[in-house]
Amino acid sequence: MPDRIRVRIRFSKSGMFAYVGHLDMMRYFQKAVRRAEIPIAYSNGFHPHQIMSFALPLGMGITSSGEYMDIELKEDMEPALIKTKLDECMAKGVGIISAGYVAPNAKKSMAAVEAASYRIGVFTKNDDFDISLLEDGIRRFYLDQNEIIVVKKTKKSENEIDLKKLIYELEISGESVEMLISSGSQNNIKPEFVMENLMSFMGLDTENFRLGIHRNDMYYKGEDGCFHSMSECG
Amino acid sequence: MEDTIKLALPEEILLAVDKPARYTGNEMGCVIKDESGIRIRFALCFPDLYEIGMSHLGIQILYEMFNRRDDVWAQRVYSPWTDLGDILKEKDIPLFCLESQRPVKEFDFLGITLQYEMCYTNILQVLELSQIPLLASERGEADPIVIGGGPCTYNPEPLADFFDIFYIGEGECSYDELFELYNSLKDEGNYSRAFFLHEASHIEGIYVPCLYEVSYNPDGTVCDFAPRYEDVPGTVRRVIVKELDEAVYPTSPVIPYVQATQDRIVLEIMRGCIRGCRFCQAGMVYRPNRERSLETLKGYAKQMMDNTGYDEISLSSLSSSDYSRLPELVNFLIEECSARNVNISLPSLRIDAFSLDVMKKVQDVKKTSLTFAPEAGSQRMRDVINKGITKEDILAGSEMAFKGGWSKVKLYFMLGLPGETDEDMKAIPELSNEIAALYYDTVPKEQRNGRCQITMSTSFFIPKPFTPFQWARMYPANEYKRRAALVNETMKEQLNRKSLKYQWHQTDVSVLEGVLARGDRRVGAVILKAYEKGAIFDAWSECFDNDIWMAAFKECGIDPDFYTMRERDVEEKLPWDFIDVGITKAFLVREWERSKQGIVTENCRAKCQGCGCAVYGGGVCHA
């Protein structure tokens, strides 16, 4: 057994939890871990805090089935038992999907994430939008172009970036747009940013549309160069 | 039961406002019921921001108590912040309760807690956004019965026009009777709003303002206050819980996602206070002092830690040091909490060897400051207000604290107390200077970590109903400014001035609070006018606009000085005299006279002073 036992927990957010912000989610889980009596490790110091970290914050209004939290244990507990105990303490709208040990030398989930996949519904006020109209747009915007130079604004600056390199997959699937995009501490792009650029490329006014965004999962890049679900735990 | 509750607000609004989870409910511990068995839907409102309201124990108690009844569904509603308030108004969306997300106007009752005077305009906002007529006289059969409770009901008169009922006293006592009345009138088929209110006035603690008439003397004082009907009681008696151990306690409280101001477990150890400080309304109107038993509190603490997962627990009372089993309770908590990595917060402790020892165990002395509330700078003034703490106590406590490693001290004072002289004001920085000097005398140079930091904070004294100072006068805002400036100037003359810091409160808002605290029914028109002119969130300094209020007074032809700037005669009929809080007027008059002579009155445990609360038959009076 390694000195530090780390467990990665995958959870979902739905319903009104789309409006619970990142810091509030952290506080929510701090309380839930206590209620579930998970033997979490604490930091030293006068007011010890739980050793817990979260991958990539989720934007306001977005639901997810691929959120991750890493916790360190002070004594071993089977991940399957952690999943069960924690799931019993959840409010409606948060579900524990899985839990597994994190490999001893794996990066923290925050540092490991390199991509995220999303499912996006596109709605108009009258709900009369035909998603297949985007099919042609995606072909011309994404598949046909060798580079997609767009302006990305941050708080400090405006940069031109090549979106083509940061979008790994973009397609229509059923009634939604599905995408796999670069995410994490480097080259992070947001799904709504991709949609805005796609739609304005097509000449659509984004003001007239509402997006229903759902994060499917987050991924790290394995030694094989492929993306693996964070739930594989490195 | 619906599986998922449909949110009252659409996504585009939720994404447009700050902290949307204030409005989406579904918190851990919130109660969802099957509508079919519900006869009484009760909206519990704290008329301020969600984060403030969710920190309030009283609402959690009523929520627990009401929801234990199968026929009642109690839900919560708070003031929307101005961003959402504007949207609701513009889009004509009615204000809703968090649990069912249904409009407040569909409820049978809307109960609003009145915790401080500066939330009065927020009450009107809640009513308006709920699409309920602001004036009780304009409400119809379909509108909820609007009830006010909490400390400000000890003078409800400025709000009389806006409420159907005021509940005077502790919430645990008379609601069941009120609900039984409501149900039985509905069963018999002879329910009407007017009949229900009339019948409700017979229940102890229930005051129905529309059933009383007030007349005024030519000088503006109250001439007569009398019921309009023979069967309506002339006085309304405060109701209290005799045995706290038997009262409901919310051991599985609602836990917010948005961080509340008090983001911790609250353990209410007792009610009332034995001290009898003459300025303190809570110390008077919550008598007699009643304790929860040690065993009960231990049980609650454990259950709440299990149920909530909070990482901090705080004791709640007016003066925790006076809890008779405090050492046992604190030692239990230290043991229980260290095993669970839960922090302990111990407010309102008197500084002595015991409390310093305890605080050293539960907090980091380097980072925290020690708090004293001498309330007045000079011993003369402390005797006037009956604050049973001497300069020797303060210095001895400080010395122990400095030896224990603390170097930061916070001191709370009031300015504008009755009979305050310039000498009394100057005594505030002088006392602080002595404490600083004591630090340098006590702690050798090599053990110091820079200077000590003595922070003085002053608020302006506001006379409150049912205190010995209820007859006292206040001063104009510029006089308060002069007094604060005098403290500030005197501080700069002190030898240890570099170790001293001074903070003082806004002056305008204190004068207005004074009007609302001791106003009569005529002040209601001013509140309405100020609200119409845009006053809202007056307790928030970034929102408060004194000019609006002054214009409102002018337009209503009401002189605010009438309520604040004159010392009232003890013979004058006061707007709140019809309430019987237990304490007799004779006791208050006696205390007012003794304060003028600077005579200290002993605490309830040392010797009963015959205040009148012994008639309740519980607590310290019968220990």
Poorly predicted residue ranges of chain B? none
Distance between the termini of chain B: 49 Å
Largest sheet of chain A: 9 strands, mixed
Report how far the terminal alpha carbons of chain A are from each other: 17 Å
Features:
heterodimer, A: 234 residues, alpha+beta, Alpha-Beta Plaits, 9-stranded mixed β-sheet, two-stranded antiparallel sheet, 11 strands, elongated, B: 623 residues, alpha/beta, Transcription Regulator spoIIAA, 6-stranded mixed β-sheet, 4-stranded parallel β-sheet
Explain the overall architecture:
Chain A has 234 residues and is α+β, with helices and mostly antiparallel strands. Chain A folds into 2 domains: 5-109, Pseudouridine synthase I, catalytic domain, N-terminal subdomain (Alpha-Beta Plaits); 113-232, 2-Layer Sandwich (Alpha-Beta Plaits). Helix content of chain A is 23%, strand content 35%. Chain A has helices at residues 22-35, 79-88, 109-112, 133-143, 163-166, 191-201; strands at residues 5-13, 52-54, 63-73, 94-101, 115-124, 149-153, 158-162, 167-173, 176-182, 209-221, 227-229. In chain A, strands 1, 2, 3, 4, 5, 8, 9, 10 and 11 form a 9-stranded mixed β-sheet that branches. A two-stranded antiparallel sheet of chain A has the order 6-7. The longest helix of chain A is centred in the N-terminal third of the chain and has 14 residues, at 22-35. Chain B has 20 helices and 19 strands. In chain B, strands 2-1-3-4-5-6 form a 6-stranded mixed β-sheet. A 4-stranded parallel β-sheet of chain B has the order 15-16-17-18. A 3-stranded parallel β-sheet of chain B has the order 10-13-14, covered by helices on one side. Chain B is 34% helix and 14% strand. Chain B is α/β, with parallel strands linked by helices and 623 residues long. Among the domains of chain B are: 11-237, no CATH class; 264-361 and 582-623, Transcription Regulator spoIIAA (2-Layer Sandwich), CATH 3.30.750. Chain B is globular, with a radius of gyration of 25 Å. Chain A binds chain B through residues 15-17, 19-21, 23-25, 27-28, 30-35, 42, 46-48, 50, 60-61, 89, 91-93, 210, and chain B through 4, 7, 11-12, 14-15, 19-21, 24-28, 255, 257-259, 263, 305-311, 340-341, 343, 363-364, 367.
